[in-house]
Specification:
heterodimer, A: about 300 residues, mainly alpha, ABC transporter involved in vitamin B12 uptake, BtuC, 11 helices, globular, B: about 375 residues, 2 strands, about 70% helix
Chain lengths: ~300, ~375
């Protein structure tokens, strides 16, 4: 019999992952692989924790968390959108720098359990967070078929053709990155503020969540609705392994920690190989920088 | 409105321009970044400079040891980069190399066998992302990067359950004394400089700096390897036997990484430690060198002799990290990785592109 607490925790953790998956989907639809999302999550987790401790208000913490998640994306915009630098290496750079910054911010306040984001009670709060994540996915799904969605896809499919039609692909990619950073910020804030997920901020609270998100995004087929199921699946893996350990099953914690990475990598490779044969699913300019020679003149 | 214009340069940059620009950027970004973090973290600049830039430290055996280790890893990653494989998996590969030495220590205690096992493990681990990239267009960066975590958690499992050498804490048993490197001894000038780094590592480094310079820049093998790096399709149409050159480049890279891992393990505490949360950076067995060395490999642009200069500068950065303590060391260690890669990226931008930033009234 699976306890109710475990189900609620899976729902809570799934919701947290869905937000960043949605951000990464929009960013990748516009052609940018945003690896700095790990930095966004780490930095916003520390910021929201520090602000909540300082002001005793989790809502202000959440707001500042979302805003601080955008900062790594702004740097990514400079290097990978407006300058043709390798976006994967840029992502690692800003992930490292902002992970370091998160340790500075997180240690600037006393290490205390901060107030949680609670509406009515903990269970209801988790359900509200989950339902808002699901509704965000549905809204995004609807938007992808509309004009704004087509604009985003044009920057990810063929930015040069989009430019010749009068669309500014740089601005669209900037929007995609900032949206992704904000969603990463929301994920990081919820990691520390959401009830029943983690009791206190600590170094390495993200445990590579951002990198897993980037790896599993192709398995969503860049579809927000599929992202809901993928988010719940990856949210459940560590929680189920902890549950199995505590219920007395002989289970290596190290192998359990390895599992999300292994599954994410396998899914990424399989989907990449399968999708390569099916045109139209993978954004064609994904990971490619835009350099227009004539813009110089 | 601020406008940024970028145009590709047609010609390759000259050696001196490359050297001065990259050195300038490397030193300035590194120092400015570290000082900002030092100030924010509460460490005085004067204290930092006195600790780091003193005569004894700048020629100390420990600094030279790190220079040699970083150079070996950077050379390994440089040949990967030249062949079109951006290998972000150096961290995991170094720890796998250590695992190879541990296996040899337990079953067949002999240094050469240990090096062969670690070479094979690294070779297999490197070939997976490279083959996927060449034949299936799967991102080598992402694959090799995630494989780091898999390798680190796997090593954690091994030192906890399979080869646990200590009941009190998870770590491997000490490496057998038969697996030992040779060090300069005696009371002479050489031992003052090289007492902390093995003769095997120094000799390998010198041989491969010369060899890779000749092979990569002046030999048909190097042209073929670099052609695969530029375009697999062009290389294939030009008659380059891709699998052979893939194996050559990965084999050289694996050999260098296995020597580096032997130096780190056998010249250090001779045990593989448990890595909490499989953290990459100062707390890992390889100190985040897999990433920083990739920065150097990108900066050197195929010129192996430049690696020595960059590695020496980066080792000074690591000394800054070592002079710090507690969580502050973790902050600096993580930032050092980011800053070294950032300087590599910006150098690449300024060398290969013309960048103009202007202010215009109209759109």
């Amino acid at each position: 019999m699976v306890p109710e607490t475990l189900i609620l925790q899976i729902i809570g953790m799934g919701a947290v992952l869905i937000y960043s998956l949605l951000g990464e989907i929009i960013s990748e639809r516009s052609g940018i692989v945003n690896l700095s999302i790990e930095g966004s999550i780490a930095f916003s987790a520390a910021t929201s924790y520090a602000i909540t401790i300082a002001y005793h208000n989790p809502l202000i913490g959440l707001l500042f968390g979302v805003l601080s998640g955008i900062i790594p994306s702004i740097f990514m915009t400079l290097t990978s959108v407006y300058m043709p630098l390798n976006m994967i290496v840029s992502g690692i750079v800003f992930s490292s720098i902002f992970s370091a910054a998160s340790i500075v911010v997180g240690n600037s306040v006393p290490r205390l359990p901060q107030e949680r984001l609670v509406f009515i009670n903990e269970n209801t709060t988790l359900m509200i967070i989950f339902l808002s994540a699901v509704s965000s996915a549905i809204v995004l799904k609807l938007f992808i078929g509309r004009r704004i969605g087509l604009l985003i896809r044009s920057a990810g499919e063929d930015p040069y053709s989009a430019y010749s039609l009068g669309i500014n692909p740089w601005r669209i990619r900037m929007f995609g990155l900032i949206f992704s950073g904000a969603m990463g910020g929301l994920t990081g804030s919820l990691l520390t503020l959401s009830p029943m997920i983690s009791m206190i901020w600590r170094e390495n609270i993200t445990a590579g969540t951002g990198f897993i998100i980037v790896a599993v995004t192709p398995s969503t087929l860049w579809d927000p609705i599929i992202a809901i199921f993928i988010g719940i699946f990856f949210g459940s893996i560590p929680l189920i392994s902890i549950y199995l350990q505590t219920s007395g099953m002989m289970f290596s914690a190290e192998l359990a920690s390895l599992l999300p990475y292994l599954i994410a990598l396998s899914l990424y490779i399989i989907f990449r190989i399968v999708l390569a044969k099916r045109s139209g699913l993978v954004p064609r300019a994904l990971g490619k920088e835009i350099v227009l020679e004539e813009r110089y003149e | 409105m601020i406008s940024i214009y970028v145009r590709r340069k047609i010609q390759d940059p000259g050696v001196f321009k490359m050297l001065f620009l990259s050195l300038g950027l490397f030193v300035s970004i590194f120092l400015i970044g570290t000082m900002i973090i030092a100030l924010v973290g509460g460490l005085g600049i004067k204290e930092l400079l006195t600790d780091v830039f003193n005569k004894d430290l700048l020629l100390s055996p420990i600094l030279i040891r790190y220079t040699v280790i970083i150079s070996l890893i950077s050379l390994a990653l440089m040949i990967n980069v030249a062949s079109g494989f951006t290998n972000l998996g150096g961290e995991g590969q170094i720890t796998l190399g250590m695992l190879g030495l541990l296996l040899a220590s337990i079953y067949l205690p002999d240094l050469s066998i240990g090096l062969v096992i670690s070479l094979l493990l690294i070779f297999i681990w490197q070939m997976i992302p490279y083959i996927l990239k060449i034949y299936r267009d799967v991102s080598d960066v992402l694959t090799s990067f995630i494989m780091n975590f898999i390798a680190l958690f796997m090593i954690n499992h091994i030192v906890t359950y399979v080869f646990r050498g200590d009941i009190a804490r998870p770590r491997s048993p000490p490496i057998n004394e038969k697996l030992s490197l040779h060090y300069v001894s005696g009371d002479n000038f050489l031992s003052l400089l090289f007492s902390r780094v093995s003769i095997e590592s120094i000799v390998t480094l010198l041989i491969f700096i010369i060899l890779l310079y000749i092979v990569l820049l002046r030999h048909r093998i190097g042209y073929s390897i670099r052609m695969i790096g530029y375009s697999v399709k062009t290389a294939s149409l030009s008659g380059v036997k891709i699998p052979i050159y893939m194996i050559i480049s990965v084999m050289i890279s694996s050999l260098l990484l296995s020597i580096a891992s032997a130096e780190m393990l056998l010249g250090g505490e001779r045990r593989i430690y448990y890595n909490d949360y499989a953290k990459i950076g100062m707390s890992s067995m390889s100190f985040g060198l897999g990433y920083t060395a990739l920065g150097i490999a990108l900066l050197s642009n195929g010129r192996s002799y430049l690696i020595l200069i960059y590695s020496y500068l980066l080792s000074i950065g690591y000394m800054i990290v070592f002079t710090s303590y507690g969580y502050f060391r973790l902050i600096l260690g993580t930032a050092v990785i980011g800053l070294s890669l950032l300087s590599a990226l910006l150098t690449d931008l300024l060398l290969r592109y013309e960048v103009k930033i202007s202010w215009s009234q109209r759109r």
